[in-house]
């Protein structure tokens, strides 16, 4: 095995895949495209990702995981008030999505195509996020700050009611003036709905 | 003036325009296409709609107005409880959108292109709808059933928080099992947030 292939980790392949996607759009990013960009044989990429579908799925998951990992810290801040945690969590989600869409719109559009292709990965990502939210809702119920007969169902309702501020199909609206006020008004109403 | 052109009302032209759109997609529906479909001279269509843009704008407005007119009856039912009126209004909006998307998906896709072109008409439509909602919120405040410092702002927040159930970008989700439960959970939470 040559030194090049020894250091060829899955992470390095996924970084290169993102770069191929960024430069050439969603139609690209086959195993062969990525091997060429890395200057390695496609066999060495296949050792990590056996199909084009597996590679595209993994890079989509990596992109989505970056958001959920950034938010998991807020969900875990047990010491803070549940209302502040819930608001910060949604603000963090909105900011992360807005940054991705605004700073690199072409890559964002590319990932929109990939997420359409990988419904199962997106479903797992949303399950991750609503599990974090459920934890905040449960902490609020335990502290007597929130009422929720079924915290997981309430977490899903909160996620759906804030879709305007994280679902990629609303990305065009995120740069409009007043969108932060809209976010605040929706959060105010939802937090009122959670109070006992 | 021949009998044909005498009966050529704006409404007849818009009906024909919708039929042209249904058959040929959003790229069609110029004044000339519509005149041909009606078997009249394009001059007689121009008497009602001076440009292609004006014709496309008018047919978009007609499509959107059908929804707001259907809902205005619910908004005006002063005798009923505000919670029931609010829930029925949003259910009516969701059902109308779901019906349009499900029964004639090609025409729905065509109108999605037209609404993208006609941002101002869509803005007026949303103003119409939130004005109806404001009326329901104000009635709720007057009856002591709702709290809202600024009923118009609350109406906009309610509209934004329910986007999953009326914004065309979510149309793919409207046929999924469980979507009615999702709608109910969001409405429950929002109605709780409105209570004094």
From TrEMBL, chains A, B:
Entry keyword annotation includes Phosphoprotein: no
- Specify whether Transcription regulation is a keyword of the entry: yes
* Entry superkingdom: Bacteria
Q: What is this protein called?
A: TetR family transcriptional regulator
Q: Extract the DNA-binding region annotation as residue ranges.
A: 30-49
Where the record annotates domain HTH tetR-type, the positions are 7-67
The record's section on Gene3D superfamilies has:
Tetracycline Repressor, domain 2
From which organism does this entry originate?
A: Streptomyces carpinensis
């Amino acid at each position: 095995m040559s030194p090049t292939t020894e250091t060829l980790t899955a992470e390095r392949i996924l970084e290169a895949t993102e770069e191929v996607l960024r430069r050439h759009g969603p139609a690209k990013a086959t195993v062969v495209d990525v091997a060429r960009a890395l200057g390695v044989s496609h066999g060495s990429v296949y050792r990590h990702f056996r199909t084009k579908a597996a590679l595209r799925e993994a890079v989509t998951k990596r992109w989505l995981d970056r958001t959920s990992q950034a938010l998991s810290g807020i969900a875990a801040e047990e010491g803070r008030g549940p209302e502040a945690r819930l608001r910060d969590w949604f603000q963090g989600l909105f900011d992360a999505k807005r940054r991705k869409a605004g700073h690199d719109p072409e890559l964002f559009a590319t990932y929109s195509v990939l997420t359409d292709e990988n419904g199962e990965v997106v479903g797992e990502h949303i399950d991750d996020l609503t599990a974090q939210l459920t934890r905040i809702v449960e902490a609020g119920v335990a502290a007597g700050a929130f009422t929720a007969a079924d915290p997981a169902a309430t977490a899903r309702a909160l996620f759906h009611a804030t879709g305007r501020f994280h679902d990629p199909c609303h990305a065009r609206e995120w740069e409009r003036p007043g969108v932060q006020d809209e976010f605040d008004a929706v959060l105010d109403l939802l937090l009122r709905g959670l109070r006992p």
